[in-house]
Write a structure and sequence with these properties.
By secondary structure, the chain is α/β, with parallel strands linked by helices. It has one domain: Rossmann fold (3-Layer(aba) Sandwich). Helix content is 40%, strand content 13%. The protein is built from twelve helices and seven strands. A seven-stranded mixed sheet has the order 3-4-2-5-1-6-7, sandwiched between helices. The radius of gyration is 17 Å and the shape is globular. Bound molecules: adenosine-5'-diphosphate (ADP) and magnesium ion. Magnesium ion (MG) binds next to α1.
Length: 268
Amino acid sequence: MGITICFINQKGGCGKSSTCFHLAGHLAQSGLRVLLIDADPQGSLSQGFLGSNIVESLEPGETLATVFREDAFADLATLATSTPISNIELVPANQHLAAWNTPSPEELGLRQFMLASLLEPTHDYDVTLIDCPPNLYACSWNALLASDCVVIPVPPEDFGTQGLRAVLQAIDQAGQLNPKLTLLGLLVTRMDRRLLVHRAYEQKLRRLYGETVFETVVPEAAAFKVALACRQPVSHYSPRSSAAAAIAAMATELRDRIHRQQICRSVA
Ligand SMILES: Nc1ncnc2c1ncn2[C@@H]1O[C@H](COP(=O)(O)OP(=O)(O)O)[C@@H](O)[C@H]1O
Ligand SMILES: [Mg+2]
């Protein structure tokens, strides 16, 4: 049984899906067996691997939505589908998940733990990455209750940093129900060092949150978008690019942080 990490922020465009997509590629290339859970009804992560036509036509029973249904049986072996990338399997999501992503997680009752239950039985994956929607509704809450660790991707702009308090509060609250949950850190994403405003926000984040902020920064780079458009993580599409190197450095720091928190299992 490996480690489960979720990527959460209540804003869109922070790089949550992109980080999951490209990090999964790097980890898979290093020989780890990676499971991706798409917990966002927008299905961006699923579309990254499978294309939008296939993802939009998936029946509810073929997606994460099925774990929330009382009249359906969901198990990981059935839901996890292979992707074109070796060592990466995916539990996809699409519009069918939206109905379950209710704004008040506290009203969910047992449905808070559906994702945790799905991942509970012993499985062969070394790492599970969960991509959350851009809100703190039921799907993100389920992800927090199912995870060992959480990473908050933050673009260095006002809109990215504003909602952080609510995200940290949700992590705190989830920790009461899931005591193993550990915040691995805030990850600055989409950084354009040429912009003074980005450098200023990065400094502000580091001043406010200190070592909680990853030293590694994910730059804004066309290579990420091009690789995604070709449905391959940057580790596979352009392994020699600086974008691939940034993801590799981030993965190393991720491992170090997991190790330091002593919640390491096979990933460390
Ligand atoms: N580091 C990056 N460099 C360039 N483009 C990026 C980067 N991270 C994300 N993007 C692009 O920005 C858009 C939003 O990113 P995404 O990962 O989907 O954000 P989120 O999942 O937080 O909503 C996508 O088109 C993605 O390809
Ligand atoms: Mg996303």
